[in-house]
Amino acid sequence: MAFSNEIMAWYQRHKRDLPWRHTHDPYVIWLSEVILQQTRVEQGLPYFYRFLEHYPTATDFANAPEDEILLHWQGLGYYSRARNMHAAAKAVVAEHGGVFPSRYDALIKLKGIGEYTAAAIASFSANEARAVVDGNVFRVLARYFGIDEPINSVKGKKLFLELAQSLLDETQPGLYNQAVMEFGALQCRPKNPQCANCVIRLGCRAFHAGDVERLPVKIKGKASRNRYFNYFVVMEDNRMLMHKRGKGDIWENLYELPLVETVHAMDIAELAVQEEVAGLFGEQAVLQAISGTVKHVLSHQNLFARFILVSRRDTSIAIEKKISGNYVFLKDLNTLAKPKLIFSFLENFMVKL
After folding, report:
1. Which of 115, 131, 192, 290 has the smallest set of CB atoms within 10 Å of its CB?
2. Active site residues per annotation
3. What is the pTM of this model?
4. What is the pLDDT of residues 129-157, one digit of tens each?
5. By C-alpha distance, which of 140, 90, 114 is closest to 33?
6. How far is the C-alpha of 215 from the C-alpha of 148, rounded, in Å?
7. SS3 for 165?
């Protein structure tokens, strides 16, 4: 139809030259797709090259230690996706002899690969006629066809997927999918879409109705909860006390500073007399705030973090350590996978030492 043809013609003129568009290797495409779900292309490119350099095949990825993978993923967030990638690579080795599958039905069975990612890999690597529906595609279709059904409702997801599949050029599904995604990223953008020079504006219902900014519609999620993190910087000679997070909460298996979470924000005086804090480092410990409150936003959570230096009144007496963790040489801190919040703090703190 005219819509699909116009989109593909636009793509041939305006597409970006990206490395994963020069291959049909499903493993390479998988790397790019998962990384780009986390960040924009410009920020994602270094991660893509890093992973491809360290793990050129699915077997290399599967055989790597989890801590190493998390370290390379550091800064992207949603670390569970990196762990899911590791599990998927192991399954590829165990079930597919190390050859990354290119068909939808096999891909959808791998951990961390949902309908969107499976369709993208299958269409880009094997030209399988599967429509790809990501945020960019939702936006283009909602605006062009004037659809106000929420894109994150059950009914909306079904409607958009069926519409996308009906628009798919089945002779060139990979090309069409790339084109409509690129069109949403560069032309039909969330903010300030380029309507004035849009090749499909004459048929765009949202454009004619003045509804471009309102669409697509999305149901608001549940309110985020606030959490208050008090991180303690404990130094011993040229070492720093670090703690590895366990399971059952955010940042599983990542390294952070010793932490006490409180139910609300506290100043140093109030924090120091909390039972959980008072017994951690002994009577000789002195607490000194070395940062203001840093807000870190996660999915459904707002973290309010402060960093507190633990020193001692008598420098001849070592700080007691009644908290789990190990001292790590400062020169080795960059070998530990850390949440972005901790990574950013340490990067600034180390400069001041």
Report:
1. 192
2. 33
3. 0.85
4. 999 999 999 999 999 999 999 999 999 99
5. 114
6. 7
7. helix
The count of residues in the chain is 353
Provide CB contacts within 8 A for 308, sequence distance 6+: 230, 231, 232, 233, 268, 271, 287, 288, 289, 290
- How many helices (H) and strands (E) are present in the chain, helices listed first? 15, 8
**What are the φ/ψ torsions at residue 261 (nearest 5 degrees)?**
-95, 135
From the list 92, 28, 24, the residue with the least C-alpha distance to 55 is 28
The single residue listed with the structure tokens 């990542």 is 254
Pick from 251, 239, 265, 201: nearest CA to 325: 239
Tokens of 184: 């949403």
Q: Quick one: DSSP state of residue 330?
A: G
Joined together, the tokens standing for residue 235 give 């130094």
For 189-254, the DSSP string reads -SSS--GGG-TTGGG-HHHHHT-TTTPSP----PPPEEEEEEEEEEEETTEEEEEE--SSSSSTT-
CA–CA distance, 174 with 25 (Å, rounded to integer): 13
Instruction: Specify burial of residue 73 (Cβ count, 10 A radius: 0-12, 13-18, 19+).
Output: buried
Amino acid at site 87: A
